[in-house]
Amino acid sequence: MLGDVFERFVDKSPISVMVRATLERVLGADRLDLWYERTAEKQYTRALLFSTVYDLMSQVVFCVQPSVRAAYLAREADVGTSIVSVYNKLNGLETRTSAELVRYSAREFAPLIAQMDGARVPWLDGYRVKIVDGNCLEASEHRLKALREVSGRALPGKALVVYEPALGLVTDVFPCEDGHAQERSLLGTVLTTVAADDLWIADRNFCTRAFLCEMDTRGSFFVIRQRQGLPFEILSPLRSDTRTPTGPLAQQRVCVVDEHGVQHVWRRLQLKLDHPTRNGATLLHILTNLPR
Q1: Which helix (H) or strand (E) holds 3?
Q2: For residues 277 and 191, what is the distance between their CA atoms, to the nearest angstrom?
């Protein structure tokens, strides 16, 4: 598995051999098929193995082949089933299976990174930093041409993705088949993974009262850009704090009351940017419950 992806580097780069060996250990055919049998709830294996489908998709992801069909034609004799069976298998994959594959690979790779002392310097000691962001699937132009400009057209799916910079890994994903769904509708699922001493970093789409207050209640921490419409009470005036590499910083204390009437007192940071963002913003407000 993954031979075509890495063979081109093996002769001239020994590190590629190490990478391949690591990937084979975690994502080898036997281990993937065993994992799939334990994980899938509705699908099951007949003639087409999950590892075969994974192999075909990896050819497309790593740009070895331009499409699933091209990958299939290049390995038709090894696949052993029709292209229709391959597409049926892909179309029937459960979103839960896709999400669990990301979590499985992260669990397997994390101890290898630790054993090789490959973790990066933590952004903030004492915290497990997690960056969460939304991602819409690309290639929407492959929809039927007649529907591409229709306002009610089908949209590609989306997902919330969690990245841990210390490991350099995507460690979690929350997929959604409904392309019209808002990212905020998935936050309840994200909250089930929040643990004490996590530090979550996110953009303003994730700045909801329920999400922030629940993280605070669970002993988790956040640094999240404030969105308009979030209800809060200002407890202290803005006071200049320091200058950052991107502009001067000021802060104040604010209070947010959750749905149970519990008050949460946080810091509200104001950053005046020396240079505007790509959207033209020059003033950013960020909420955090981190200690000063």
Answers
A1: helix 3-10
A2: 29
pTM, to two decimals:
0.82
Q: Are 280 and 220 in contact (CB under 8 A)?
A: no
pLDDT, residue 158, reads 84
Q: What does the angle CA 158 – CA 159 – CA 165 come to, to the nearest 5 degrees?
A: 140
Tokens standing for residue 174: 């929350």
Digit-coded pLDDT (tens) for 184-227: 888 999 999 999 999 999 999 999 999 999 999 999 999 999 99
259-to-57, 99, 200, 216 alpha-carbon distances in Å: 45, 31, 21, 13
Those residues with Cβ within 8 angstroms of residue 71's Cβ, 6 or more apart along the chain or in another chain: 56, 57, 59, 60, 64, 65
Strand 233-234 and strand 239-244: the pairing is unpaired
- Under DSSP, the state recorded for 127 is S
Where are any strands of DSSP class E within 128-220?
A: 128-136, 158-164, 169-176, 198-202
Longest C-alpha distance within the chain, in Å?
A: 71
Q: Is 28 exposed, middle or buried (0-12, 13-18, 19+ CB in 10 A)?
A: middle
CA dist., res. 163 & res. 176, Å (int) = 18
Q: What is the mean pLDDT of each run of 10 residues along the chain (292 residues)?
A: 61 73 83 88 77 90 89 89 90 88 92 89 94 75 62 70 95 85 85 95 94 96 94 94 93 95 96 93 95 86
Sequence-ordered strand ranges (E) for 78-187: 128-136, 158-164, 169-176
The answer to whether 217 and 209 are in contact (CB under 8 A) is: no
pLDDT at 147: 62
